[in-house]
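hey can u check if this looks right to u? its 48 residues, i copy pasted from the old doc so theres a chance i mangled smth
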Amino acid sequence: MNPDQAPTRRLKKFPIAFFAMIMGLAGLTIGWEKAPPWSCRSTTGCSP
């Protein structure tokens, strides 16, 4: 592999990696927002 081919090959897969990173962060954010507060995880329950 020539040194001038490496950036082109890496840049070719950049959009897929960027899309996966954004979708992963979006899923984490949605899960974080829907999770109950830490104080509600006891067995006594929690009122919203």
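The mean pLDDT is 78.
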